[in-house]
C-alpha cells in the first residue's frame, strides 16, 4: 500500500498511508514510537488500520446504519497533494473529495484536507472539512489516536478529571465520578467515555512521569476566512480491556495493556457547515520525558 515517510533533519519521523490518510508511526527519536498499531492490524486496503490515527468522518459510531461505523474517511484512498520542507517543519498534505460512492452513502460534496506537520519535538495533524456543495450539511469528525504505553496499569491521564462525560460502557451520562476528584484518570477496566467540554490538553503519565501531551482545538472557518473557535471540543477516552480485545480479530488479546486511545473530535453532536464554510480539527502530539 502506498505510504509517505516524513523525516526531520533532527531525527524525528512519521509514516502515513494513503489508505485512510492513516498516520501509523510517529517517532520523535529512532528509539521511541509514540503511536500504537496492533501487530494484527490489516493492511489490505479494505479494513481500517487498527492503530495509529484513523480519521473518523462523517459519523462517529453508526447513527446512519447504511454507512460503516465511524464513516468512510478511514477506509478511503486519499491523494497526497503537497509536501513541503522548511527550516523547522516537514509537511505533507493529503486530500479526499466526494465520489459517486460517498454520495450514495452521504449525499453531500466536501473537500477534506489533512495536513501533517513534523517538527523536531512535535507532530501536528489538522483535519479540514469544507462544504463544497450548495446545501448545508451536518457531520461529526474525530482523530482516533492510539497512544503506545508500556503498561496500562501504570498510566494516569491528566486533563479529563473535572469534566462531564458519557460513559458508553455503562450507557449513561456521568457528571463526574467521585474518584475523579483526584488530579488524573486511571484505566483498570473497559473504558469508553466521551468527555464533553474537553480540556483541550491531555497529558499521559506512566509511573508518575509525563510521557506525552495531546493539545487539541477545533474551529469553524467562514467563507471570508474569519474563524470561530469551538471552545471545547469533545475528547474520547477508550481502552477495550479484556473481552472487547478478544472480540476484535485485528487486535491481540493482551494488547489492551499496551495502548490507550485519546481521541479529540466533535462527536457528542453533529456540527453544521453552510456552503463554503469549513471546520478545522487539530491535535498536536508532544512527546515528553
Ligand atoms: O472511539 C471509541 C470507539 O467508538 C469504541 O466504542 C470502539 O468501537 C472503538 O471506537 C473502535 O471502533 P472500530 O470501529 O475501529 O473497531
UniProtKB/TrEMBL annotation:
InterPro entries: Aldose_1/G6P_1-epimerase (IPR008183), G6P_1-epimerase (IPR025532), Gal_mutarotase_sf_dom (IPR011013), GH-type_carb-bd (IPR014718). GO terms for cellular component: cytoplasm. Substrate binds at residues 50, 69, 74. GO terms for biological process: carbohydrate metabolic process. The keyword Isomerase applies. Keywords: Isomerase. PANTHER family: APOSPORY-ASSOCIATED PROTEIN C-RELATED (PTHR11122), GLUCOSE-6-PHOSPHATE 1-EPIMERASE (PTHR11122:SF13). This is glucose-6-phosphate 1-epimerase.
Amino acid at each position: 500500500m502506498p505510504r509517505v515517510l516524513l523525516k526531520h533533519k533532527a531525527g524525528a519521523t512519521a509514516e502515513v498511508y494513503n489508505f485512510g490518510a492513516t498516520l501509523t508511526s510517529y517517532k520523535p527519536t529512532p528509539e521511541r514510537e509514540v503511536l500504537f498499531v496492533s501487530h494484527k492490524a490489516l493492511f489490505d486496503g479494505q479494513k481500517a488500520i487498527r492503530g495509529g490515527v484513523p480519521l473518523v468522518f462523517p459519523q462517529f459510531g453508526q447513527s446512519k446504519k447504511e454507512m460503516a461505523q465511524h464513516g468512510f474517511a478511514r477506509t478511503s484512498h486519499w491523494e497526497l497533494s503537497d509536501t513541503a520542507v522548511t527550516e523547522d517543519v516537514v509537511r505533507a498534505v493529503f486530500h479526499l473529495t466526494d465520489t459517486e460512492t460517498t454520495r450514495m452513502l452521504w449525499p453531500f460534496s466536501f473537500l477534506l484536507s489533512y495536513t501533517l506537520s513534523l517538527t523536531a519535538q512535535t507532530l501536528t495533524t489538522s483535519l479540514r472539512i469544507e462544504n463544497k456543495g450548495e446545501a448545508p450539511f451536518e457531520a461529526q469528525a474525530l482523530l482516533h489516536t492510539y497512544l503506545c504505553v508500556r503498561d496500562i496499569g501504570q498510566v494516569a491521564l491528566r486533563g479529563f478529571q473535572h469534566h462531564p462525560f458519557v460513559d458508553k460502557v455503562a450507557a449513561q451520562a456521568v457528571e463526574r465520578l467521585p474518584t475523579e476528584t483526584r488530579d488524573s484518570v486511571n484505566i483498570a477496566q473497559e473504558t469508553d467515555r466521551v468527555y464533553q467540554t474537553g480540556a483541550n490538553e491531555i497529558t499521559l503519565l506512566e509511573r508518575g512521569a509525563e510521557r506525552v501531551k495531546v493539545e487539541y482545538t477545533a474551529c469553524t472557518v467562514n467563507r471570508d476566512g474569519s474563524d470561530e473557535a469551538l471552545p471545547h471540543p469533545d475528547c474520547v477516552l477508550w481502552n477495550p480491556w479484556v473481552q472487547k480485545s478478544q472480540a476484535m480479530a485485528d487486535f491481540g488479546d493482551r494488547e489492551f495493556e499496551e495502548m490507550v486511545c485519546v481521541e479529540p473530535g466533535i462527536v457528542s453532536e453533529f456540527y453544521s457547515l453552510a456552503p463554503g464554510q469549513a471546520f478545522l480539527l487539530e491535535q498536536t502530539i508532544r512527546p515528553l520525558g
